[in-house]
Amino acid sequence: MVGMKKGVIKLSQSAYRILQQRSKSDALSSLAQGQNRVVDASLTLIRERARLKAEQVRALGGACGTSCLLGVPLGHNSSFLQGPAFAPPRIREAIWCGSTNSTTEAGKELSDGRVLTDVGDVPIQEMRDCGIDDERLMKTVSDSVKLVMEEPPLRPLVLGGDHSISYPVVRAVSEQLGGPVDILHFDAHPDIYHAFEGNRYSHASPFARIMEGGHARRLLQVGIRSINQEGRDQAKKFGVEQFEMRYFNRDRQYLENLELGTGVKGVYISIDVDSLDPAFAPGVSHIEPGGLSFRHLLNILQNLKGDIVAGDVVEFNPQRDTVDGMTAMVAAKLVRELVAKMST
Question: Which branch of life, at top level (predicted)?
């Protein structure tokens, strides 16, 4: 009888463990299903917005390329501050600020739907709240960019967010177009660490991922003035062309007469707002004196010869901006002038 009781007790404990395992498995399955629904809903939102905006542009007629804003409010891959996650709405607000008109320096009218349209933001925080990890977040960003590109004549112009977003965006552009692009990258930092602080998706590492993946033929980095030995070694490894600020006067004529994209699928422009001297753009996480003037950057961009198929403006941190929103206006002006180059 005693032995039987012990057997019953053992059987009960075993059954309890099985029930625990099944309960845990069911919970994980339920979580995964919930995450799938959130991602699917996010992509559906971008898909339908892109479809609607593209139909509106096509109805107007005459556009070969229309800049399409896509916000990616991601800041958690920053190594210092996460404020760039709040940038997309501030940039949009500044673009349409009544203190200036909606005409670019080249005379393009931003209020013309054939020049600029907007599909809103990828809901990054909502996905993170559901426990979705970085690998899947990055894939969702890539998929969102592809959805925009699947609706001609839309061309993605991405509002960051920290610089980690450039990897999934460039990857999507390269995969969607079927080959590598040339990248013109403005930044105080090369952002090419193999895995900064152990994070492969760090905002200090996107260009390592881009070059590893073969998504770029040429990578030109302009405005560099904070670089260590790893940054130089990685540049040598991947054949990156780095233009440091200490040599800017020497390189200026070359940079203001660039021709890129011939023989590849086009040109991608990535503008980190901290490429500018903090006198022009104080609202950034990493303040690095000695940078480009706004006009230096604009001269390079406006004189560039090449088909710009996509781009991003990243690392504006509203939490460090001046009270009057000076850096927001600077970021908005960068977007506006990039729109002028992308829209055809």
Answer: Eukaryota
Q: For residue 71, what are the β-bridge partners?
A: 121, 159
Q: What is the DSSP string of 223-252?
A: EE----HHHHHHHHHHT-EEEEGGGHHHHH
Tokens of 11: 């059987």
**Taking the model in full, what pTM does it have?**
0.92
CA distance 216 to 219: 7
Tell me the CA end-to-end span of the chain in Å, nearest whole number: 89
Estimate to the nearest angstrom the gap between the alpha carbon of 79 and the chain centroid. Answer: 16
Tell me: the pLDDT tens digits for 140-198?
A: 999 999 999 999 999 999 999 999 999 999 999 999 999 999 999 999 999 999 999 99
Query: Which tokens is 7 given?
Result: 């057997």
Structure tokens at 324: 């009057």
Residue type (1 letter), 93: E
Peptide bond into 73 cis (omega under 30): no
